[in-house]
Amino acid sequence: MSSGRFDALFATLAQQHDGVEALLDSFFDFMHRKTDFYAVSRDPARRKMGFLPGHAQQKARVKRTESGKQIPVGNGGATASYTWTQSLDETTINLRVPPNTRSRDLECKITSTYVRVTRKNAPLDEPPLLEGALPDKVRVDECLWSLERESTTLQISLEKLKRTWWASALQGHDEIDTSQVDSTRAIHEYDGETQGAIRKIMFDQQQQQSGLPTSDEMLQESLLAHARRAPDSPI
After folding, report:
1. What tens digit of pLDDT does each residue of 107-162 get?
2. What pLDDT, in 10s, does the model give residues 6-17?
3. Burial of 95 (0-12, 13-18, 19+ CB in 10 A)
4. pTM exceeding 0.90
5. Are 85 and 29 in contact (CB under 8 A)?
6. What element of type H or E holds 229?
7. Cα separation, 114 vs 128, whole angstroms
8. Which phi and psi angles does 168 have, rounded to 5°?
9. What b/e readout covers 42-71, taking b as 16+ CB neighbours within 10 angstroms?
């Protein structure tokens, strides 16, 4: 027990958040990005960090909306084998790999619509470490993957072709609620035209999720309605 040792620090942090839930969100976001709190350790006797399969979920369960979608952390989410974050331009996947794996032991294939990670010289019946179709196209020449020495996390950086929010890192995997992504913190850093594009993207995605017309569809309908009201309109 800390016996109040960090009370002043926690009080300062609490004052900078709107409620306890926001404070906890920041804490677990830090754990997600800067530690291996969510890591799954297959051999805990050889590691000082990480958790046995399923144990991390007991410590901190993924928060979900009423519809069952994940509430985004770092604008991304988590699955049993990887976590992911994103910006409008890039998606980053942090994939757990077996201990003592080196980059030369892996084969990472990235196409404009697909990603696959396998171990070289693995048994034929061994499934890929990661495989699936991407939600949208990426710029293959600008995509990277890396595995630092003595690390058990393979990082895959995917440069998006279109500036948009992904609901999942791979098609068919657990989705986040894209209406809750945090795009407000850095929006002021963009010029007015780009800020408008960001707001348009978010509006259109929310409209699509609600089964409502997008801004382009609304504009098209408005133009058609105007044409119908014109004298001698053939419409």
Report:
1. 999 999 999 999 998 888 899 999 999 999 999 999 999 998 778 889 999 999 99
2. 777 777 777 777
3. buried
4. no
5. no
6. helix 215-229
7. 13
8. -155, 160
9. eeeeeeeebbeeeebeeeeeeeeeeeebbe
